[in-house]
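Today's session is about reading a structure prediction critically. Students often jump straight to the picture, but the first step is always the sequence itself: look for stretches that repeat, for charged clusters, for runs of hydrophobic residues. Only then move on to the predicted structure, which in these notes is written as discrete structure tokens rather than atom positions. Here is the chain we will use throughout the hour.
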Amino acid sequence: MKLRPKLDKKNLLIVLCAGQGRRLGYKLPKMLVPVAGKPLLYWTLKNLESVNQISAIRVVAPLEWLPGFKRLINSWKLRKQISLCAGGVERNDSTRNALEGVSSAEFALVGVHDGARAFVPPKLVDQCFSEASRFGAAILAVPAKDTIKLARSGKVKTGTLPVIKKTVPRNLCWIAQTPQVFKREWILKMHGASGARIKNPTDDAYLAESFGFPVRMVLGSYDNIKVTTPEDLALAKCLAQRIKS
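Below is the predicted structure for this chain, in token form.
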């Protein structure tokens, strides 16, 4: 499969893959860490192959690893149209890099997905794009299972124990996932010059909120884990084996 820089389809999904695997105990980029005999990147892209509403994928990878990522993706002979670009210092920078050149009407919707969420159910990704098409923005999210405490102060890493400010009603608490999908005009505005109103936003929905854009939440899946710790990696191997079997 030839990787083409120009995308000309309806919906684009940006897949953020520039993170390192240090917390997993590897010196490799996180997306190259092996899971059930394949790099984590393979499971992510293979899974996204069956999402009908994605026309093109733009993989954001570490600059020095771009040739290696390209060789791997070519070797898998995936059907989706895939391009590559270099990541930035922060998540926001990586998304902004991927949005370069997405200024015309070639895409109706642009989604952002954590590459480390390799096992998101494809039907939920399709649903997220459908809701974004209707309402302008949509993300996957799951209801919080635990009681949520809002802290008044404290930093666990420095040994200063946090103090509870209040308990947030659990029925109002949702855990954000990806993909997060937006109208093209909205996401370009969110990541434009004025998008700097929030320093290092933790997700794109946070940026959308700051602009007053309403964001719908689509019920996600608890299998849609983000591989971050060794415990997550063990669960990812189980999910991959389930697919293989």
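Discussion point for the tutorial: The helical segments are 40-48, 66-76, 91-99, 122-135, 184-190, 204-210, 230-244.
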